[in-house]
Amino acid sequence: MGFVINKGDKKSISFLECGSFGLEKENLRIDKNGNLAHTKHPFGNDFSRDRDFCENQVEMITGVNDSVDSVWNEIARLDSDTKETLLKLKTGEEYIWPFSNPPYVKGEDDIPIAEYEGELAVKTEYRRHLAATYGKKKMLFSGIHYNFSFSDELLKSVYESDEYRNIEFDEFKNGIYLDLSVKVLEKSWMIVYLLAASPLFDGSFFDESRMGETVISKYASPRCSEIGYWNNFIPILDFESIEGYVGSIQDYVNKGMLKEASELYYPVRLKPRGINSPDNLLHKGVDHIELRMLDLNPLFEAGIDKNDLNFIHYLIIYLSLKPELTLNEEQQRTAIQNMKSASMLNPADIMITSTDGASNNVTEEIEKILNDMNSTLSEYIQKEKVDSVISYQMDKIKKENCRYADIIIKKYGDDFVKDGLKHILQYKD
To answer: Which helix (H) or strand (E) holds 423?
Structure first.
């Protein structure tokens, strides 16, 4: 179910932009020569700077923030503090690699699986399963996860309207997030296209003998493309209820297609408060939604532009105000294919298939959606703010070579790793 907010409902509208925000940012640790670091994770049990798949893959995790400005400030501080710490290691200076695609890779033996000990050793065993199933190299793709929840004040204000009197609040809340996840899935291709920032590889990713060769990929975002980190099948999920949603994921686990629910590699996830487990989600309900398709952006020191964070927030509000959306099995498959298609570098090669089966060029489809976002949101939010958020994205499709991937090719395309190292040393200096 989407929000039904009467334009005269000033109370609900006043809470519409409120919410909670969190970011998780992955980066690889490297040495001064552009090689993957082989030192132990240097941040101990610091929850805000964990490991992901690799021992050398730092995951920076913000707390819960009440605004885009606040969460951006926190991830920028974590990024800066992490870089400062790595420069002072007793084992020698290390750096944060600012791209989603890795630098030099000397084969799969060059990729150290994260080593956990004691009660946490099961996490290492799980990563060995992932390495055997998907190969280590794909695990090097790094990105950003965007976590969001609506404010309780907004949810309760909307719920108190006559529209939802016949259902319990918990069911209403779960329904809001289930509907939103369907809509984000269906529009994930647009986020990929507008934020893609990973067109370059070092040749060693494909063959160690090609080390030092800069490869301009046909993808603007390989991690979201057909060569990215996906399950070996396209999951079809049940978004009709929280019981159906959890059950559809658990069914893949029961069939042996997933080792556990967290192995579901999907553009969007629904998460409970506390431990992220199917049982917790089922019994506690949805706390927030996680968007998983954002590239690291080396054009911004913190790895992400605040303007893009604002855009995703406004996109979430816009989608929530639209009528309820249901996707059948074929339409869910199409949504995933649209996302993979939008990861391509050349806009002329990208056709987006809508829910009615019609196809349109990606930039024409984005322009249509951005215009509708502007007109829809301006009825609820100050128009100057909406115009600013929308025009920033519109420039990427209207102005020549204004997409991030094009800028990155121009700036780092001569020698991907060496130019990337120069970028890093500018920060150090």
So the answer is: helix 416-428
